[in-house]
Amino acid sequence: xxxxxxxxxxxxxxxxxxxxxxxxxxxxxxxxxxxxxxxxxxxxxxxxxxxxxxxxxxxxxxxxxxxxxxxxxxxxxxxxxxxxxxxxxxxxxxxxxxxxxxxxxxxxxxxxxxxxxxxxxxxxxxxxxxxxxxxxxxxxxxxxxxxxxxxxxxxxxxxxxxxxxxxxxxxxxxxxxxxxxxxxxxxxxxxxxxxxxxxxxxxxxxxxxxxx
Length: 212
Fold this sequence. Notes:
Number of helices: 10
Strand content: under 5%
Radius of gyration: 19 Å
Distance between the termini: 59 Å
Largest sheet: none
Number of domains: 1
Shape: globular
Number of strands: 0
């Protein structure tokens, strides 16, 4: 009987970790846009989802182990991450804007992430150059896990990591199913304009605390 209550307790802890993680990851960010676009293009969908989900899982594990408390005190790292993130997102936004406004660029665009290596590098960049991913995984999820010890902390981390895998694979393959509907130049022009606007907005939000 005691064992049953213990199992139920671990299940509840897993669900709490899952709920916190899925709530944070639903916020529209660079990772989500990257996976969504790869799914719409049917371009290395599995590897795109895997890179983002696995990266999140690694950061969540680091947060559960307490790395976030150490990182949060190193202000210079946060500033440099924000600068590189702003430059990367702005550059990607310009690429998407050019793709939307230039029909030739839109055709070439289909080849830009053709290789697996390029896809992996893009997925890693969208993950690790986003300062908010560290706040979500290392600080918020890591901080929430500090209430638990032993198996409970492990199950909390597993629940949080599971949310990333379920979300990204659902997003990537859900978008892949929609790609035939969006397989025309006008739709991609609108999609790329929206993505460019999101990238510029996120870049501005990331760098603004250091400018004003």
